[in-house]
Amino acid sequence: FSDTGTKPPESGIFGFMINISALLGVITMYIRYLLIEKQNESSHFVRSSCNMFSLCIGLMGCIGMGIVATFQELSVPSVHDIGALVAFGSGVVYITLQSIISYKSCPQWNTYFVCHIRMAISVISCIAFIPMIVFASQISMTKIDWTPGEKDYTYHFVSAICEWTVAFGFIFFFLTFIRDFQ
């Protein structure tokens, strides 16, 4: 994922877009938090502390995105990797918690169909997150231009597929909020 933004001028565009995405994530998560708080006033389907915890986990993920954007993969790999771990790990926990909250709000505030879609995205993201970490930890060098057959190429390839799966999982999950925000 980060390979797309390591060389100038792409690195500047990549960093800027990741920071914009993190800001939009913060706004979306906060609106979702407020929406659940408002719905919860009449229905009492979830503890307010659970909603706040979910928001805090989500905000941690956005901070991780900011770290990824600021510290490029080749410049400061250890900080970049920590930011990516925080972003992806917190993101997976956030969407899982939001899926559970969605189920608790059924049928008054959500349909079971939307809940099932959210949970499916959460499960796929959780499943992809594990091999992403396992295979990324097996890579012994930090580089950009990989060629098939090269040492650690398979680890890099599998990790990258899983990373993109999780990233798109987040995008699709956030798209399920459209109806809630109307």
From TrEMBL:
Keyword Oxidoreductase recorded: no
Leader sequence residues: none
Residues spanning the membrane: 12-31, 52-70, 82-101, 113-135, 155-178
Keywords, in A-Z order: Membrane, Transmembrane, Transmembrane helix
GO cellular component, one term: endomembrane system
Pfam families named in the record: Frag1
Subcellular location(s) per record: Endomembrane system
Domain CWH43-like N-terminal: 2-182
Superkingdom, taxonomy of origin: Eukaryota
Membrane topology: Multi-pass membrane protein
GO biological process: regulation of autophagy
Similarity field: Belongs to the DRAM/TMEM150 family.
Alphabetical list of PANTHER family matching this protein: DNA DAMAGE-REGULATED AUTOPHAGY MODULATOR PROTEIN 1, FASTING-INDUCIBLE INTEGRAL MEMBRANE PROTEIN TM6P1-RELATED
Name of the protein in its database record: DNA damage-regulated autophagy modulator protein 1
Native species: Cathartes aura (Turkey vulture)
Phylogenetic classification of the source organism: Eukaryota, Metazoa, Chordata, Craniata, Vertebrata
